[in-house]
Structure formats: C-alpha cells, structure tokens
Amino acid sequence: MAARWLAPHPRVAIVHAPTALERLDRLSHALDGPTVWVKRDDCTGLAGGGNKARKLEFLIGEALADAADTVITAGAVQSNHARQVTAAAARFGLRTILLLTETVTGRGDAYQNNGNLLLDRLLRAEIRRAGDVESAPVLARIAEEERAQGRRPCVIPVGGSNAVGTLGYVAGGLELLAQLGALGVNATTVVHATGSGGTQAGLLLATRMAGAALDVLGISVGAPVERQRGRVLQALRAAAARIGISDLHAVDAAVAVDDRFVGPGYGRPAAETIAAIRIAAETEGLLLDPVYSGKAMAGLIALIRAGRFRRGQHVVFLHTGGAQALGAYADDFAL
User: Fold this and answer.
1) 120: which residues sit within 8 A by CB, 6+ positions away?
2) Is the pTM of this model over 0.90?
3) Which of the residues are catalytic?
4) How many CB atoms lie within 10 A of CB 29?
5) β-pair partners for 75
6) C-alpha–C-alpha distance, residues 222 and 96, integer Å
7) How far, CA to CA in Å, does 238 sit from each of 3, 74, 167, 207, 234?
8) Domains, the chain, ordered by start
9) Could you report the per-residue pLDDT of 91-117, keeping only the tens digit for each?
C-alpha cells in the first residue's frame, strides 16, 4: 500500500525502520489503566533520532532531486528539527543554514549553549540568531541571498510539516498499523506531541488509507486547540493533494487536539511535564524531553487517571524524540 502512494516521490534512506513498538509493562502497572505501548521514533537514527527523520527522507529526497546544494530552515534555539535537518544535510553533502529564534525567553546559559545547540555546532551548521520573529519571510530572504551568490538553496519550513514532509508520517503511520496487526493488538488511540502539525496529519492520512479504526490524539505543545487544528488540517490537505487523496471530510473531523498540557507556553515545561519525564525514566528507562514528548506523556497520564483510557484497552504513545535537549533544561530538574 505504501509503495502505491509514496513511490512516485523522491526519497532517501535515513530512518532505522521499522522502529520498535514496545509494551511498557511497568508504566502501565504504575498507572493502573490500559496497556501502554511506545512507538520508538526517538530511535530513528540520525544524530540521536526523532520524528523529523521520517519527514527528512522525503524533504532531502526532493532537495537532491532539485539539485540543491544548501538547506535552510528555522526553529527555536533548542530545536530538535534543526538538529536533524543539519545531520541529514551532512549525511548527503549539503550545506545547512539555521535560523534559530528566541521563541523561549528567560532561559539560562545551559539553554543557550548546551543540548541541541551544541549538536548543531558539532554538525557544522551555519547558525544565524534572531529574536522571536516570523521565520518564513526571513528564510525567503536568506534563500534569495544564497541564489544571488550562485547557490541552489532548498527552504524547509519549521518542523518540516509541508506537503512533502508530511509524507514521512504517512509512511510511519502505515508502519505502525502493520506492527499492530502483526501483534494482534487492537489499539484504540495513538497519543503524541503535536506542534507544527505534520506528524499528526500523516498519521491521520495513514489511518484513512488503511481504513483503520485508530484514533489519533495530538497533545499540543504550544498552540491553543483551534490554532493547532488549523496547522494539522493545512498539512493534511496539502499532503493529501500531493498523493491524490480526496474526500477528506471524515479525516478533517477526526483531527483531535488537547491543549491542556501546554503549561507556561512553548518550550516551558510545567510541573506535570517534569513529573511525566521522571515516571517514564524511573519505570521504563525511557527518556522524554521537556518541550514535546514530556508534555505528551503528561497528557496521556492525566487522561488515564481521568478514566479516558481504561484497563483492557491498548494505547500507543508515539515517542517523537528530543532527549538531546535535556541538558539544556537541567535547571528544571532538582537532581
């Protein structure tokens, strides 16, 4: 099925696929609720792994097909996306320009020098810093400057969540559905962190293509519900048009977002985020991050405790990665 829809699109091999689908017995026991599974997309490879690797298979594939020699993208200072774009570019011999914005203010030296930013420097990205600005026009201006110097830039949007990048999670969603089927696991829901929207959009398209009764619940990491739904819908419709899928009414209606676990804002973990990171580490040796997966796990835990998911059910937690940023948030952990 994946070959039919995805084969026409340029793609490179990056992801260590299939990523593992593991049962979290000790966490499930501690929460006294459903059986929780984790889809280990923190283990996709590529400078520590993470969900962006799936998107980059198609984004870098398109860049190479267009004979690009430079990739340009943006993110916050501790952007997982920026790290993985830089790593993918290095692997395929491309130059990288990162626009890192001060989206998260008031952080200390660790945030400004450790974590993903340290890895960006190690991977030899050309880093440009800016305040809390709208990145798209700045990226467009940088691209024009590069063209004027005779280079062939490819601009990758924040999070890689355009029509091309979203195809990565069409493939990832179909992979997950195949694993659940092989194990005979009838999961009700996949829960994950949703930010730029492409991961959720791709998962939803995969369920539509496979005719699967699997709900997709995005735990927002920054935006309120309607704004986040809009991001997901934009990515979903763009990707659907790219691969020739119409009749999206049922899929549009299935875009589910919970924004109650954002905490103080994007890149700012709440106490419940830190608690979720701790329980995942202490019960399963599973490392989450304070910006994305920690908030998603906080949402899943709260929903289990509220009775949304119960004993006898199976729920999948999609681990989108990000533990590389933990060192930048050391001050949030009293260790």
Assistant:
1) 82, 83, 86, 98, 100, 127
2) yes
3) 79
4) 12
5) 100
6) 26
7) 19, 20, 10, 16, 6
8) 2-50+162-332 (3.40.50.1100), 52-159 (3.40.50.1100)
9) 999 999 999 999 999 999 999 999 999
